[in-house]
Write a structure and sequence with these properties.
It is built from one helix and ten strands. The chain is mainly β and 183 residues long. The protein has a single domain, classed as Sandwich (Immunoglobulin-like), CATH 2.60.40. It has a five-stranded antiparallel beta sheet with strand order 1-3-4-8-6. The chain has a five-stranded antiparallel beta sheet with strand order 2-10-9-5-7. A hairpin with a 2-residue loop joins strand 9 and strand 10.
């Protein structure tokens, strides 16, 4: 039980560390008249179930990676993962490569082909299909390469997965057995 608590605590710390990476929207204000315009956010809109991948350093202010697991990670079961790569500034090109440890087979989605002329706050959608082979805590790595004003830059992001054993995965409650009528 202590090992699971430690794993959950480590993953929570990683998630909290990634929370500060998103750029803050600037409010519109007319400084000469003192009137404020209706607040407008230029941040990309993502589905509510997506969470930020953990970035290596503070690179998520330029581009960020978000993900949503579409099933419980369980040994022997397919795990679809929705990915959103969000550019927070314009780029000439964006390309991503995904890698998983040997204990998680990547069935499809190893590459997000290069997208040209990416606008600020553009959402690039991608899908991974994983096949966990072993119970434990693992990281899927995303290497996002951008071409822009800074030249070619590769940024690394981690997607944490807690894979449950087939026999320890939560199961749906079975319907209560009906007792035979007394007769």
């Amino acid at each position: 039980m202590n090992a699971r608590a430690l794993v959950v605590a480590v993953l929570a710390c990683c998630a909290v560390a990634a929370c500060d990476d998103a750029p803050q929207p600037k409010p519109d204000a007319d400084a000469t008249s003192g009137a404020t315009a209706k607040p407008r956010s230029n941040l990309a809109v993502l589905p509510a179930n997506m969470v930020a991948a953990v970035s290596a350093g503070k690179t998520a202010s330029k581009i960020s990676v978000h993900f949503a697991l579409e099933a419980l990670p369980t040994v022997g079961k397919s795990l679809p993962v929705s990915i959103a790569v969000v550019s927070h500034q314009p780029f000439t090109s964006v390309h991503a490569t995904f890698e998983s440890p040997e204990t998680i087979a990547m069935v499809t989605g190893q590459n997000l082909d290069a997208v040209k002329d990416v606008k600020a706050e553009a959402v690039l959608s991608h899908k991974l299909l994983l096949q966990p082979r072993q119970e434990g805590v693992f990281l899927v790595t995303a290497a996002v390469e951008t071409e822009g004003d800074e030249g070619t830059v590769t940024r690394i992001y981690s997607i944490p997965l807690i894979v449950h054993g087939a026999d320890t995965a939560p199961k749906a409650a079975a319907p209560a057995a009906q007792s035979a009528p007394a007769g």
